[in-house]
Amino acid sequence: MAPVKVTKICCIGAGYVGGPTCAVIALKCPHITVTIVDLNQARVDAWNSPDFALPIYEPGLVDVVKQARGRNLFFSTDVDKGIQEADLIFVSVNTPTKKTGVGAGFAADLNYVELATRRIAAVATSSKIVVEKSTVPCRTAESMRTILEANSKPGTRFDILSNPEFLAEGTAITDLFSPDRVLIGSLQTPEGKSACQSLGDVYANWVPKDRILTVGLWSSELSKLAANAMLAQRISSINALSAICEATGANIDEVAHAIGFDSRIGPKFLRASVGFGGSCFQKDILNLVYLSESLHLPQVAAYWRQVVEMNEYQKSRFSKTVVDTLFNTITGKHIAVLGFAFKADTGDTRESASISLIRDFLSERAYVTIYDPQVEEAQIWLDLSEACPNTPLENIKKQVTIAHSALEACKQKEAVVIATEWKEFREINWQTVYDDMSKPAFVFDGRLLVDADKLRKIGFKVTTIGRGERV
Ligand SMILES: NC(=O)c1ccc[n+]([C@@H]2O[C@H](COP(=O)([O-])OP(=O)(O)OC[C@H]3O[C@@H](n4cnc5c(N)ncnc54)[C@H](O)[C@@H]3O)[C@@H](O)[C@H]2O)c1
Ligand SMILES: O=c1ccn([C@@H]2O[C@H](COP(=O)(O)OP(=O)(O)O[C@H]3O[C@H](CO)[C@@H](O)[C@H](O)[C@H]3O)[C@@H](O)[C@H]2O)c(=O)[nH]1
């Protein structure tokens, strides 16, 4: 069966994945018309804004959108038209952890995937290749196929592919320009393989062919969960070791450097921290835990659950270190928290470790001043309200202030907590920060970001993750 030559792509979901991924496809494939659709009018308006005030912050994204928007890249809320016109449809909707019902707290909520799939089935009038881009549990493609086939009109067919996304926020554009690999899963039938080639040909416009991996559908779905589980496991492993370093006087930087030199281990993703955040790691591991339990594999479930538990431990251990170091009480004390995003170079706050720290500080009745270069004030209030469900927002606001610069945040505070690895925190004038702080002036570096010795020379009392010495 000859592969369909893709000329029109629709992406359902204009979020952190759908937006950048399909904007890059449009840029790299000027012969393909790409329409990204979303039900969220405000989001689509932001993607279309004349001054390119895009709904997400991602280095390099504005340049990509500037080049392609209006040429062969379009953003719209007309989901049905987008579906009808396309020959290939990406489903890139959110798959958060379920909050209620069976599997609550672990399983992925597939409601958005199902609704998008049902919409495709309801309005498609010609054959489509439907590509699962969202991260989903193993065998979700089968459910999508069942829905689509049960609703297909005479003469139309649907081929389902899995094409999980591996971009990381903050580096999305470079990841998409030069991916380690593009993974495409398909049924191993002539039709499935032909659909797989159609999508592979789209990526081949800029991705070397040896980086386009083709596998079975279920392997592709599971590989996405597996990749995130293994990455998060590395962080929990190095964080577990950071606790041993603090207790023994070993230095986690030196340990990471030493083990990373072993080519079988490698140096990446070994940075001890206050804990991993982001919308994916925790969600996808819990999803794997749920899958393992559903498959009656309790030991496997317990193994992966421990990665998340270690992360929770790391966050609470850091909060406790702050309290212990500040003479066992932070009640009434003023603390600056630098960074609210879950990592640098993004405005995304989902599962940010900063939120857990601030919640702990508020419960100890400290006063907190937050500064982040990218996160909107409204988002901070929303996240803190969710983190402290029993405290009305007006009470939270009595304890929390939002500053407009790092220097302003640190002024007259007793302690500075670095929660996100923004480069500007390394480069601020620490002498000025010191001069303006109450004394003794404490710095708690949750990201191994600053030169602790230099700060100590200025006069700070510095506590760093994974290092025994504390003055
Ligand atoms: N954020 C990441 O870095 C990342 C990376 C790789 C994979 N993923 C996975 O990709 C998926 C999307 O993640 P995201 O971060 O882009 O989510 P997101 O919440 O930023 O975006 C999802 C968008 O889908 C829209 N949507 C939901 N249902 C819809 C429907 N029926 N019709 C039209 N629009 C609809 C929502 O309005 C939202 O704008 C998730 O499964 C996630 O696990 C995310
Ligand atoms: O050595 C490290 C590396 C990362 N982190 C933290 O881990 C979290 C996740 O970071 P990162 O993986 O860089 O960002 P994400 O955007 O969450 O990307 C992950 O999740 C995506 C969604 O599934 C995948 O596509 C990516 O491949 C995967 O890296 C952040 O809080 C980081 O600060 C550390 O603490 N130490």
How would you sum up this structure in a few lines?
The protein has helices spanning 18-28, 41-47, 61-68, 79-85, 111-123, 140-151, 172-177, 190-203, 217-248, 252-260, 281-294, 298-325, 353-363, 377-387, 393-399, 406-410, 423-427, 430-436, 452-458; strands at residues 8-12, 33-37, 73-76, 88-91, 128-132, 158-162, 182-186, 212-216, 334-338, 367-371, 400-402, 415-418, 442-445, 461-464. It is α/β, with parallel strands linked by helices and 471 residues long.
Name of the CATH architecture of the largest domain:
3-Layer(aba) Sandwich
Determine the fraction of residues in helical runs and give it as a percent range.
40-55%
Tell me what portion of residues adopts beta-strand conformation: 5-15%
> What's the CATH topology label of the largest domain?
Rossmann fold
CATH homology-level superfamily of the largest domain: NAD(P)-binding Rossmann-like Domain
Query: Given the C-alpha coordinates, what overall shape results?
Result: globular
Structural class: alpha/beta
| Overall tally of structural domains | 2
Q: Report the count of strand segments.
A: 14
* Count of runs of 4 or more consecutive helical residues: 19
InterPro entries: 6-PGluconate_DH-like_C_sf, NAD(P)-bd_dom_sf, UDP-Glc/GDP-Man, UDP-Glc/GDP-Man_DH_C, UDP-Glc/GDP-Man_DH_C_sf, UDP-Glc/GDP-Man_DH_dimer, UDP-Glc/GDP-Man_DH_N, UDPglc_DH_euk
Active site: 280
Domain UDP-glucose/GDP-mannose dehydrogenase C-terminal: 336-452
Pathway: Nucleotide-sugar biosynthesis; UDP-alpha-D-glucuronate biosynthesis; UDP-alpha-D-glucuronate from UDP-alpha-D-glucose: step 1/1
